[in-house]
Amino acid sequence: MKRKTTITTSESVDFLHTVFEVFGPIATRRMFGGWGIYHEGLMFGLYFSGRLYLKTDTHNLQQFKLAGSEPFTYTQRGKPVQLSYWSAPDSVFDESEQALRWSQIAWEAALRKSVKTVKSA
After folding, report:
1. Where exactly are the structural domains of the chain?
2. What number does CATH give the domain 14-120?
3. How far apart are CA 2 and CA 72, in angstroms?
4. Tens place of pLDDT for every residue, the chain, 121 residues?
5. What is the pTM of this model?
6. DSSP bridge pairs for 29
């Protein structure tokens, strides 16, 4: 059975633990109407309005674009704001190899952001 990146509201974010178990343990935390997805204390994913988004940066953004992903965008003061999270490809839910691949890509972006933040502090 093929699963979409959109998870119905009847399903909980607990399902994401199964999706990412091939990558490693994750933690989920509520945030601004959605859920942050963390591994080893760093946020590498976002679950919002039934969609899974993964961390992007200049190193991996092209991979997400080529996969047909869309950016996470919300409205603030009447203007769209885009964060560095793009929708996960459908294959993440269907194939453990793809879940591992895309979670590693997002995790590496989170690590790069973490190193950059520490250096600028």
Report:
1. 14-120
2. 3.30.1460.30
3. 23
4. 344 444 444 357 889 999 999 999 999 999 888 999 999 999 999 999 889 999 999 999 999 999 999 999 999 999 999 999 999 999 999 999 999 999 999 999 999 988 766 555 5
5. 0.85
6. 36
